[in-house]
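Input/output pair, single chain:
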Amino acid sequence: MVTEATSLDEARAWAAAAAVPDPEVPCVTVADLGILRWVRMQDGVAVAGVTPTYSGCPAVLAIELAVEAALLQAGFEARIERVMSPPWTTDWVTDEGREKLRAYGIAPPVESTGSKLALFGETTVPCPKCGSTDTEKLSEFGSTACKAHYRCCACAEPFDYFKCI
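Output:
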């Protein structure tokens, strides 16, 4: 006999999965980044939909395993579904996630992904330390492929910028 999951079960499963930190940027969770798409109860199993930030992301398997482990630790049978469509976009990073990135010293994405300026790298990136917009890109790639490396010309601090995707 199949029993219906309660909304309380889904809420508990969501909370467990949503608390998983991103392995490459541990100041934000998978929910903050918007890569945890949903958690649904199906025949007593918590099924979590996870969208990678990009198809070649080296952390995607680690993220999926961490979400599964969090669900198991919360007492659920668990399954992860990789959701490739629609593709992830930095527009899905929550306001709280953007603030956490900034506080951690990473400039959050500043333009909508539909912006031509964002797509061609002509974005003005404010320094996460002092807020100055007098910054310069040092490298298209920072500590991970989804970030670019910048320097603030006002305070001289180097920082990563979470690129618009």
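The chain is about 25% helix and 20% strand. The two ends are 45 Å apart (CA to CA).
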